[in-house]
Specification:
Layout: E1 6-9, H1 14-26, E2 30-35, H2 39-49, E3 53-56, H3 62-71, E4 76-79, H4 81-90, E5 95-98, H5 106-114, E6 118-121, H6 124-134, E7 143-145, H7 148-157, E8 165-172, H8 190-193, H9 203-211, H10 213-226, E9 233-237, E10 243-249, E11 254-258, H11 264-272, H12 303-314, H13 318-334, H14 342-353, H15 362-380
Parallel strand pairs: 1-2, 1-5, 2-3, 3-4, 5-6, 6-7, 8-9
Antiparallel strand pairs: 8-10, 10-11
Length: 381
């Protein structure tokens, strides 16, 4: 049993849903939970888990706000980003799981660390955009990764010092288009792109898996989480998604974390760390596993991944720009306003238009993030 109280951000997404399953099995009290606008689902979970405080960051209609408060007197209900940040700074919880999608999650990671609480991080953008700031805020509490690949590295590294590590190897499913003929890429539809062969995820993350941009983000996260240079961080396609990442040590040994692909396992580890607890949520039968295979990441098939690596090495404001440009381009593609292959061109142009800023502060990051997103959308109009 996990003896910690939890603040759950992004509770109605796929990570949030899996977290509720972990909380139910382990009797984890959830003291506050947030969603954007999905009040029906969050209220359903809140009643099941007796969550006292609920936050909706995207509901601005005063009539609906009044209605939700009146109909649910057993919960304290708040609205807006400011109220959630205030709660994260003042509420009594042991660990916060940030599963908010996109750049909106960055401010909440800051608020959690500023309150000197454990941060279980499923929001990639926090470290991608603000890793140089967040890592300076750490005291005796590490950021605990929730992404399956980063959790695997966290588990395999353990207490080994950085100088014993030769390489960190991230694995990737390759997404839905890993075997599609390159001649077919100009015909890819949003409906095709929103399928993943191994994982169930939200639309943006599923599309990032198809383009492999998600793996470039994870390379950046790995750099900040484990204080390793980019030259030591590698990625490889592993279609079965059974080995979630590997650590290669200087003596030639590899340590890997292996399990069936299910986010409940890294969530459970993040919430129970530094202990392991008994669980029946994810079971893996070795005799039934498919053969394990690996392949290189093809630059023609996944140009967004390699563009992301260039940005990682450039640093400064450029990770913010590429992240925001990809968010905007993804929105346009999913709305059928641009073809699949056009996303890369749009993102590349946004990077070319940006002047370098070497050490952006939080407000600069958020402003450039907003301006980049807006410029990409206006460019198409």
């Amino acid at each position: 049993m996990v003896n910690k109280s939890l603040a759950l951000l992004g509770a109605t997404g796929s990570i949030g849903t899996s977290t509720f399953a972990v909380a139910a099995e382990q009797n984890i009290p959830i003291v506050l939970a947030s969603a954007d606008k999905n009040h029906l689902l969050l209220l359903k979970y809140a009643k099941q888990h007796n969550i006292p405080s609920l936050f909706f960051t995207g509901i601005e209609d005063p009539t609906l706000q009044t209605k939700l408060k009146a109909e649910n007197p057993e919960h304290k209900i708040y609205f807006g980003e400011t109220e959630l940040i205030k709660a994260l700074a003042n509420e009594n919880y042991d660990i916060a799981l940030n599963a908010i999608a996109g750049s909106a999650g960055l401010r909440y990671s800051f608020a959690i660390l500023k309150h000197n609480k454990y941060l279980a991080l499923a929001n990639k953008e926090s470290l991608v955009m603000g890793g140089h700031l967040l890592t300076k805020m750490l005291s005796d509490k590490p950021i605990i990764p929730v992404d399956s690949e980063l959790s695997a590295l966290f588990q395999a590294i353990g207490k080994h010092p950085a100088n014993e590590i030769q390489h960190l190897h991230l694995t990737a499913s390759g997404g839905i288009f890993r075997d599609l003929s390159l001649e077919e890429f100009d015909k890819i539809t949003p409906q095709q792109a929103l399928k993943n062969p191994n994982w169930t995820m939200g639309a943006k993350v599923t599309l990032d898996s198809a383009t492999m941009f998600n793996k470039a983000l994870e390379v950046m996260e790995t750099h900040w989480l484990f204080n390793q240079p980019y030259s030591k961080i590698k990625a490889v396609i592993h279609p079965q998604s059974l080995i979630h990442s590997l650590v290669e040590f200087i003596d030639g040994s590899f340590l890997a974390q292996i399990s069936n692909p299910d986010m409940k396992l890294p969530i459970l580890y993040a919430l129970s760390w530094p202990q392991r607890v008994h669980s029946q949520l994810v079971q893996t039968d070795l005799t039934s596993l498919a053969p394990l295979t690996f392949r290189e990441i093809d630059p023609k098939r996944y140009p967004m991944f390699y563009l992301g690596l260039e940005v990682a090495n450039a640093g400064g404001i450029y990770p913010t720009v590429i992240n925001s440009a990809v968010e905007a381009a993804s929105f346009l593609f999913l709305q059928n306003k641009i073809p699949y292959l056009k996303m890369f061109d749009i993102v590349k142009r946004a990077l070319d238009d940006q002047e370098p800023i070497s050490e952006p502060d939080l407000e600069t990051i958020m402003e450039i993030n907003y301006q980049t997103y807006k410029k990409v959308l206006q460019q198409i109009k």
